[in-house]
Amino acid sequence: MTNKSGQQLLLGIDLGTARTAIMSNRGVKTMVSSVVGYPKDIIGVKILNRTQVIGSEAIQKRTYLDLYYPLEDGVLKEASEKDLLAARELIKHAISLANPQEGDQLCGILGVPARASVANKGLLLKIAKEMLDISMVVSEPFMVAYGLGRLNNALIIDIGAGTIDICAMKGTVPGSDDQFTILKGGNYIDELLQNVISERYPEVQMTRYLACSLKEKHAFVGTPTEKVIVPLRAGGKPAMYDITQEIRLTCETIVGDIVEKLQHLVMVFDPEQQEEALRNIWLAGGGSNIKGLANMIMERMKDYGEVRVSCVEDPDYAGCAGALRLASELPPDYWGQVGDKIGV
């Protein structure tokens, strides 16, 4: 790209398995479903009058589309050329949502899972280079920590659709020993929920998309405050079904992994700092909306002393907000000191 005007458009982009969030220094704040749809045949092309659809529209029209989710477990999927093409189209679309102007110097910080491989980060930067003048990839929980200003003696838990990322902040850019990626998240819960509802109510027509919708509306852990009774369809006819225990059990499947990794990461702090870190645990990402999750984590960590787990105010945008803050406060020339960078 050629910089004509000298105006910098700074972008924070949180690439997620299910959703990609983007914010800019010009006030853009938006989100797109991380999916690209291509018509299955000529009928689909005729209905759409185009050859691809990106985001929630692709999900709505999935019956006549082949859907590609290019971010698997939060990293670029490399299964086929079509997956890589979909990744390019998704990133290109996300950047376009920031309304770049002719001559802008495009500078973007992109979030990836805490333990993303060097090869995958390199592939992402290679794609980003086609669309951005300067780009950098950093771990998603680090972006959350930076946005919160919690850079020392803090623990960040970022629960996304594809992964759960946990990071210990010790006053420096976190290294590999300070972070964990758990290959569970919202999609994992959706699959389990679909299966357990189908097992209990085999007559019900259940899909992954419906399971996801039910989880997003009703997710909770711990003792239920009320029953979850929802309308489902069996044989094409609607009826009411109790899925309280199914919601609870599937949501609780991620808690043990989170607690185990937290217990490990506590040990990376010096003993005199552990008490402060345990009072400074933050939940972010869509999974932080699970009711009762913060309290359950605190209860299971009670042997470690006083533990406080708080939820960020804007969990869906916490990552890209942190990335934008980092981009705004750190001149792009210095980005290479924080993460993997490409560009002038």
Low-confidence stretches: none
CATH topology label of the domain at 8-144 and 317-338: Nucleotidyltransferase, domain 5
The percentage of residues in β strands lies in 25-35%
The Rg value, from CA coordinates, equals: 21 Å
From N to C, what is the helix and strand string? EEEEHEHEEEHEHEHEEEHHEEHHHEHEHE
Structural class: alpha+beta
Task: Quote the average pLDDT.
Answer: 92
Order of neighbouring strands in the sheet with most strands: 3-2-1-9-10-18
Main sheet summary: 6 strands, mixed
Secondary-structure arrangement, i.e. CATH architecture of the domain at 8-144 and 317-338: 2-Layer Sandwich
CATH class identity of the domain at 8-144 and 317-338: Alpha Beta
Distance between the termini: 11 Å
CATH superfamily of the domain at 8-144 and 317-338: ATPase, nucleotide binding domain
Summarize the topology.
Blueprint: E1 8-14, E2 19-24, E3 29-33, E4 36-39, H1 42-48, E5 53-54, H2 56-60, E6 65-68, E7 71-72, E8 75-76, H3 81-96, E9 105-112, H4 118-129, E10 134-139, H5 140-148, E11 152-159, E12 164-170, E13 179-182, H6 186-200, H7 208-218, E14 229-234, E15 237-242, H8 244-252, H9 255-266, H10 271-278, E16 281-284, H11 293-300, E17 309-311, H12 318-329, E18 340-343
Helix pairs in contact: 5-12, 6-7, 6-8
Written account of the structure:
- The chain is an alpha+beta fold.
- Among the domains are: 159 residues, ATPase, nucleotide binding domain (Nucleotidyltransferase, domain 5, 2-Layer Sandwich), CATH 3.30.420; 67 residues, Nucleotidyltransferase, domain 5, CATH 3.30.420.
- Helices cover 36% and strands 26% of the residues.
- It is built from 12 helices and 18 strands.
- The strands form 5 sheets. Strands 3-2-1-9-10-18 form a 6-stranded mixed beta sheet, sandwiched between helices.
- Strand 1 and strand 2 form a beta hairpin.
- Helix 5 crosses helix 12, helix 6 packs across helix 7 and helix 6 runs antiparallel to helix 8.
- The radius of gyration is 21 Å and the shape is flat.
- The termini are close together.
- The model has no long low-confidence stretch (mean pLDDT 92).
